[in-house]
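Explain this fold:

***
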Amino acid sequence: MIRQIAIWAALSGAAFFMTPARADAPSLRFPLDCDLGEDCFIQQYMDRDPGPGARDHTCGPLSYDGHTGTDIRVMDLSDLARDIPVFAAAPGIVIGLRNSTADDGRDGMVAGQECGNGVLLDHGQGWQTQYCHMRRGSVSVTEGQRVTEGAPLGLMGYSGNTEFPHLHISVRRDGEHVDPFSVDGSCSAAGESLWQAPLPYQPGGFLTAGFATDIPAFDSIRAGTAGLDRIAPDAPALVIWAYLFGARAGDELRLLIRLPDGDTLHDVTVLLERTQAQLFRATGLRARGDAWTEGGYSGEVRLIRDGTEIDRITAETRIAR
């Protein structure tokens, strides 16, 4: 239900258009071809804390110290195979681009090229938008080209200083970074926005979940290869795992595994002790004696904050020869 509400707010926003705080400010459209809250999520916002800490425009923790833009991510690296287009958020002129940085995240980052492959647009009156971490070779515009709102710029990638596949978009006016969610600089969800339609704020949630025969490596979860659709009856263990973003200290994760007949096989609640941008947790049972009963198994993981369910995700697997 949380995600359904978020999607409704994003897609039916025509009646909720906001007037920019400055008359000369660009009106921004969402810059990716994805469904926010379903197959892409905003993991980090611009840092609004002037000190050494970090807070987003709602005064929440979805940022890090000195972060200058908005990070819109997909679930894992396998999603990049969908060729996710990046669009110009407003009409402008291409005044800078890079298209040759390797798609290896931080492992392939070159000093001075933290943005990776990207495009810089000038919108006039001192306003600019920058698009980072795009796929090598995908940038489809040229320097000096005039583009319309919604014009394709290239594809989401994994280049530059990044630990997860995402688009980093930053907004600047006269060289100063501006938060498009609250241009007046306040730490409040009611701040004036540059977005044409309001983008839902999801204070953390699940990316993916699945079954495995042991606790998976984090690299396999980030790559999208950890989940098993079929497990042998003689598997040494049955494990459910969940990958999530925006976790806060004190959150609870409830992880359940259900037998083919619907009865609960495993039910564990885990207390999260740290606020983290992304993490995974796993739990399960070792095989004891006889083989696992064959059939379809289901799993469910719930994120609970201050006694309220924030998000829920399900997974399925089949035990069969």
Remarks:
- The chain is about 5% helix and 40% strand.
- Residues 2-11 form the longest helix (10 residues).
